[in-house]
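Re: that chain you flagged

S.,

Sorry for the slow reply, it's been a week of failed gels. I finally had a moment to sit down with the sequence you sent. For the record, here it is as I used it:
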Amino acid sequence: MPKLRNIFLAAGLFVVAALLIAPGGSLLYYRSTKGEGCARCHEIRPSFDMWAASTHRTISCNDCHGGLLTPDADFHASNLRRLVRHVRDDAPQQILMSGQGEIERLTARCQECHQREYAAWKAGPHSATYADIFTDAEHNRKRLLMDDCLRCHGMHFQGGIEDLVTPVATEGPWKLVREEMAGKPTMPCVTCHEVHKKGQPLGPRAPRKQPVSSARQAVAPASLGLFDRRTKVHVAVDLMPVPQIYEGGRPVKMSPDPRQALCYQCHAPEAGGQAWSGDDRTGLGVHEGISCLACHDPHTQQTRASCATCHPRLSNCGLDVEKMDTTFKDPASKHNVHTVKCADCHPKGVPPKRNRGLSIVSSLR
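Prediction finished late last night. Pasting the structure tokens below so you have them in one place:
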């Protein structure tokens, strides 16, 4: 009995010591080395080097990817599997995030610093869940589900369409094979933003003697890029061309806004490049050549202020365009705001523009 008691006592002391040493080890080895500790033991030197030059280099690896004290059994089990592969010298050439748990932790970490952007994304359509997308009966009756759906709606999902939803047919009812995915977002922050993108950390706003000219201000954030499901890497927006769209045989005038290239990765026309084929929503008519982001908020996708931005009350003919019969006012309107033309409202011909000065004076009377 005394020997058994001593064994239990020793085991208890070992557990207590491990619990006390773990936080210290995490603090001294990982945090004090500012990430170098991670790169010493894991095959992630390329990722570490990218992080060290990124906008997030002041944030510890543990803060986004978890550490010894992360209260998630799956996280530690995954790390144990990586350790076994490391010991066997069987590590993959490319170390990537794997599993929904890592995506959720990273998204939660984004929220801590980018609260306004996160709230806007959460309120918009791009926060749609797997249940929203893949059990939509109206959509599934019209279009057969396929693996390519995951290119935009679930690029971080580990598996194919048959591993996610059943049946893969145009007759339901449909349900998720993995029910735990139902409430999870199909397009988290890392869908369109590369965390390790090179850039300067966002520090306190320094006083400037002169404002930066508009022409020198960045159009797109450095992090902007689409996560490619096939290669498992982000493709930067400056590497994506804005496609040429056609209306019949006529080339449509395209906005030079480089951010649109990201929109077209999912909202694209069919192979022929015809406007409004497939999921294309390229502006035509009076709005041809205007960027998607001129009307759609990047995160919420709301368009409430879009008309007023370009059409103040006293512009051109002085009419309030928000009261015109377009889909901006009523979704059931026959005049889609994306494609409305002058002739839609002026079938007998567009009247000549009145003198702007006289228009303003008359509208003030």
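What I noticed first: Residues 21-95 form one domain.

Talk soon,
D.
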